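Next up, sample data.

:::
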Amino acid sequence: MVITVPNILSILRILSIPVFIIVMSYGMIPFALAIFVFAGITDALDGFIARWFHQKTAFGAYLDPIADKLLLASSFVCCAVLQLIPKWLSVLVVSRDVIISTGILLLWVNGYRIEIKPSAISKCTTFLQLLSISMRLLLETVGTQRPEIVAVYWVTGLLTVVSGIHYITVGLRVVNAREPISGR
C-alpha cells in the first residue's frame, strides 16, 4: 500500500467519526459541526488531490467510499437518535449503504471483478447527505429553525432511494452479463 495524501485524508475522516459521536452525545453541537465540516472538506479534497496530482490508488478507491459510508451512516444514526433529523431519513441512508456494501461483498465473494467507481448520482447523493447533516447542525448551533430544511430532507431521501436503485440495477447487470471470474 502506498501512503498518499488522499489516503491520509480518508483515514482522518474515519478517525473523526468517534470524536464526532462523542461530542454529539455530550450536546456539543458547534464542535460536532466543526468536525463534520472538516470531514466533509477532507472528502472533497481527497478526490481532488488524487485526480489533480495523480495520486489515485486501488487502496484509495476502496478506502474513500468506506470512509464516506461510515461517516454518513454514523452521523445520520447519531442525529436521528438525538431527534435532530427524521428517523425515516436515517433509515433510508443507512439501508442504502448496507444494501450497496452487501451487494459489492456478494459480487466479490462470488468471483466477480468489480470496479469501485462512484456514479454521478451517487456523488450528488453524498453531497446532499453531507448538506442535510451540516445544515441541521448549523441550525442547531445558531438556535433557529428553518422550514426549508424539510425540503432538503425530502430531496436527500428521494435521491438516496434513486441512487440505491441505480446501484442495484448496476449490480444485477454485472451478474447477468458474465460468469464469475473464478467460475463458481
About this structure: The chain is about 80% helix and 0% strand. Residues 5-177 form a domain with the Four Helix Bundle (Hemerythrin (Met), subunit A) fold (CATH 1.20.120.1760).
